[in-house]
Amino acid sequence: QVQLVESGGGLVQAGGSLRLSCAASGRTFSSYAMGWFRQAPGKEREFVAGINWSGLSTYYADSVKGRFTISRDNAKNTVYLQMNSLKPEDTAVYYCAASKSPLGVEVQFQRGYLYDYWGQGTQVTVSS
Description:
Blueprint: E1 4-7, E2 10-13, E3 18-24, E4 33-39, E5 46-51, E6 58-60, E7 68-73, E8 78-83, E9 92-99, H1 106-109, E10 117-118, E11 122-127
Parallel strand pairs: 2-11
Antiparallel strand pairs: 1-3, 3-8, 4-5, 4-9, 5-6, 7-8, 9-10, 9-11
């Protein structure tokens, strides 16, 4: 069983930055593919970014490419989402997720049902 705890959310002005962290319990974190998803009020959950077990492969939604960066530190059992140039439309609850499956292509990282564990979410609010 893996527990995921997100932190780092908050209120920021448009154009600002935030870094989200997701700390994982368990000794097998380094073998998991990880993803960040978000859900805005009244909208469906959407994929934001994904990273493979080694950190060498990363994937992003078109809406965040060039602004967000996903990374991981397997020694610290933590995955990060650096968010720059934030926009009001980035406002959402952000969730990290872990997959036991060896996700290898972008379309797999985008599929929420392929993730086995989810965090409780952290609110990000971007004011205009």
